[in-house]
Design brief:
By secondary structure, the chain is mostly helical. It has helices at about 10-30, 35-55, 65-90, 100-105.
Length: about 120
């Protein structure tokens, strides 16, 4: 004898409408040239949209109890990786290296490169 638990499915059209509204908010927010508004529109809306997709379309809320903890651990490892490499990537020079400017690292046109035969 099996027992079936009834899983409540969300109203997908309502979730889709919320995602579309958040898309509009993020596009309009990125058109403003105010730095704080752009950052909130980009990252704040992205976090909310990711939560809605994970909860409603990936059904994380009805999975086993350890799945959300696994997702949190993955995000924690991403943050650790970013914290580990960001100081080197965001600098212009280091102990034995210097980051070349973009316009000097590659030729400006295809004909500007010299051929060595």
């Amino acid at each position: 004898m099996t027992t079936e638990t009834h899983v409540h499915h969300p109203n997908y059209v309502k979730v889709w409408a919320i995602l579309v509204a958040l898309l509009v908010v993020s596009v309009i927010g990125s058109m403003s040239h105010i730095r704080d508004v752009v950052l909130i529109a980009a990252f704040g809306v992205a976090v909310i949209k990711a939560y809605l997709v994970a909860k409603n379309f990936m059904h994380v809320n009805v999975e086993k109890r350890w799945v959300p903890y696994l997702l949190i651990m993955c995000l924690l490892f991403i943050a650790i990786l970013f914290a580990g490499v960001a100081p080197d990537v965001m600098r212009n020079s280091g102990l034995h290296w210097t980051k070349n400017p973009v316009n000097q690292s590659a030729p400006s046109s295809p004909g500007a490169a010299t051929k060595h035969e």
